[in-house]
Amino acid sequence: MQVDVNSAIITTTIIAWVAIAILVLSGARALSTARSLKFFRMRRTRIVAGWRMLLAALVLLAFNLLFIRFGRDIAATIFHPTITPTITPTVTLTPEPSLSPTITLSPTISPTPLVSDTPTITPTPHVPLAVEVEFTSVVTPNPAAVFSPLLFAIALDENFLPIDPAIAFQNPVGHLYAQFTYDQMTPDAQWTALWYHDNELVHYETKPWDGGTGGIGYTDWEPEPHLWLPGEYEVQIFVGYTWKTSGIFTVEGEPPTPMPSATPTRTPTPTRTETPTRTLTPTRTLTPTRTNTPTITLTPTITLTRTRAPTATITPTRTPWPTLTRTPTATITRTPTPTITPVPY
Questions:
Q1: Which architecture, in CATH terms, is 129-252?
Q2: What is the pLDDT of residues 167-198, one digit of tens each?
Q3: Can you give the residue ranges of every domain in the chain?
Q4: Which secondary-structure segment (H or E) carries 10?
Q5: How many CB atoms lie within 10 A of CB 213?
Q6: pTM surpassing 0.85?
Q7: Is 162 within 8 Å of 152 (Cβ atoms)?
């Protein structure tokens, strides 16, 4: 009984000391990292968490000291010690070999397992070659850059904090965000986000870092609704070629069926029409009538104007001789010769 109580006290004390050390280190780290955060809300949350861990470590330390001092006495009042009887060894008579035959057991053959469970080796995340060729930044990233674990949500608030983060989403998912916090980032350094579904790359983005050295960031994906296949998804974050953090979520339920698209009809290639020349004033041509033999008609018109002879008037006065009026000359009026227009047959 005494040995069991001592063992329990020693084991409890060791566990308490380990817990105290973890709380102190975690609280001190939270207070130190809170100074580097530029957002007031995150800095205040980190400071409050650090002081809570230090206070819990102090309470656990006081409890551990009291347990070391009064633990045995309390255990003795609860568990009363009992007297363990001493067993007197008895003499065992060994029969003679001739009187008691010995039975030899046949050895049994243990079946050899056909398949042995070999632990699989999880490969280190890496950037695929098809994504590496799209790197454009020549800035060397800071190897000390750190990223927090990813939080998944279908919406972010005005401070880029996830609204109702979860690790399982029901179809249709729509727009999904993977939010994180970061520190000690180098501006314009290449960073990459890879989205995997059942170890198959379904989406990625890679570009020079356009944020600050510390703060909040996210990567997102909004595919067509029917592309959210059910299963497990993993998002990996890289800075340069170095993996920084990952996150896993699942999608449940079948995706919606895509709407059928109309079959496109083939449109013939239009031929190029030359630009017509511009005619200033089009002339209208009358349609001629077909005449077998053109008839030429010349109609000269001669108009003769005849003036009567003047009447002699007898006057009382003597006129030596009347004035003779010459005979008027004939006036010929000619009509212009018509122009002959050949008529096509």
A1: Sandwich (2.60)
A2: 999 999 999 999 999 999 999 999 999 999 99
A3: 2-78, 129-252
A4: helix 2-34
A5: 15
A6: no
A7: yes
